[in-house]
Fold each of these.
Amino acid sequence: MNGSSRSNSSRSSSTTANREKQETLSRSDILTDTTEQRAVERMFENAIQACADLAQHIASHDFDFDGNTSKGAIRVLGEEGVIDEQTMNTLVAAVGFRNVLAHEYGHVDYAEVYETLRSGLAVYDTYSQQVAQWIRNNQ
């Protein structure tokens, strides 16, 4: 199995695990169970960081972005038509959320985390699809 297949398999397993967590985690669990809180935080950190890393790569490689901020790279993808404005705005906000989680910049509201888990995961699929379409169109 080559690295690409392994990577795709890993992503697929991660996506499946995220969906299972989304479907099975109760509001009470996220509000009271520290282990569940940390697991969900880590899931969000990983998903958001993966989007940011890809944005940094595309923005610097294809659009001469010389900045070093994830938000800036995501904005470049929006401005250049790689992703739509709604996806751009959602991911820029998600990077701020990731910073709170990863660097403990502020208080984490687990009721909000639960709502995002229940309804806000589609942006990661949308982002992946939009980037994949842009790559297909620009090969």
Amino acid sequence: MNLGPYWEDPLANNVIPSVILPLISIFSFMFYPEKSDTAVIVGIIASSVLVAASVITKVKNLQYYLNWRFGVMLLFIDSTMIFLALTISRAYGKFLPSILLLLLMLIAIVLSHKFAERFLDELHSPKTKLGKMIILIGFIGSGGGAMIGYISTQTIGAHIAAPIIFIVALIVVGFIHARFQLVAIEKKYEAFDR
């Protein structure tokens, strides 16, 4: 599983604390809009699996292996998105929204694996209007994104803002899956630096 000398990569240790993303999403799933015993049981099991993956990664120093690092990041990001979709579904009181959002997520994953090089090239040097819009969203940053999220939930409501935020977050899912496709599956290690 060792893909080369990535021991000096300062980003390698960022994999371990990134377990906080799915844990926040799971916590929301368990307690929003109200506590549900089934959601709490599912949330505790999922949280245990994710924390175990993070602990195993740290104890065995697996974060320095590129395939493992991407695999764990996929686990964390995909878990975040799945539980976010389930939280949105619980907020609506119906299961249909989560099915539609998870279907969109599946389409984003399939397209990012199928067109991985093109996707990363578009993010690196955008040529289309969509690529330029994605870069513009990236320039907003996390603070700006949090402010936009807060304002949108206060003005248009969480029922409308949450699915929109989910769809925008699919860009991150596609980005990570495209890199995983090129680096871990196709063994194009130069794509790691894109």
Amino acid sequence: MKKKSCILLISLALAANTANVYAYQPKIIGSVLSTDIIAYIDKNPIRSYNYSNSTYVLAKDLRDYGFEVTWNNDERTVNITLPENRTVKEFSADEKQALEKRDPVGIKRYDVYQTDIQTLFDGEPVASTDAPAAINVDGKTLILFSSLGNHFGRTEWSEQYRIANIYTDGGQLPSETYTTDFGMEYQETTPMYLNTMNIYRCGTFPVGTDQMINLVTIWLQDSNNIAIKNPDGTYKEETYMEVNQVLVNAFNLKITNSTSNQLNLETPLSTVNFENITEHLLTYMPASVCNTDITLSNPSASSKDFPDFLSIDHKLYVSSQAFAKSLEMTTTLSDFGDGTFEKY
């Protein structure tokens, strides 16, 4: 009888302990999903996630972007600061490409748990009215991207291009050198605001060849996504041509560079014709559009709205109007990829 009583007491004790274990399991309150949004901090891409239709990033990832992330176990807080003398990781081209890849939408990445952990920015509690400023996922903390940007700088969002940017106060935008396929180097400088643009892309071909040059046409638009017009009623738009070996060959182009990064262009040809043999014109969602450190030395058709050169997804493009004028040519090149360059 004593043996049976002992077994019964042990069983009850085990059951009680098991009940206590389950009682302290945090409650799952939602799911974090994959997103097609590309997020950047000072032009460096960072992996982002979707929760409750808002964009989040992992707190631990912020260390690569110059932030300090400190965990206080006694107070159950995560404190995020941005030192003046910050150190930002130098991302390789492969790392950037991986982070700029758009994920399929809606794939479950994490469970979201109730938590007593408090997130702080510069030692102060983070408040947000639209979505939780921070959430706990599988032992990690996710930070609301807009709250992070609004506290440490400014946030820019383009719904059309599904891109979110943070530019931190005092942040140094990376000065990176890129190279065209024929060996010419240039640097990206300041980013263009994608929410002021509507962008289309197609390909054009020098007549008689099957070698393609990418074209990107940019229409400027206002805050209501309405195309902006010039005083004469035409739309503010510009077609840019990728500066690649095909373009160099098509014009038999000679490029010389002055010490002030002004390019001088020359061609012996009087006429160059282009056609779009693909018959495609597609809406384009670039990950980045940036100004560059180079200009054209000859008088160009560029303006404050449309510079001579742009770096689009880290590829160099030249304004077709500025390019033509620098070669003392006129052009009828359309945004569809058909047209002619002809000497004055």
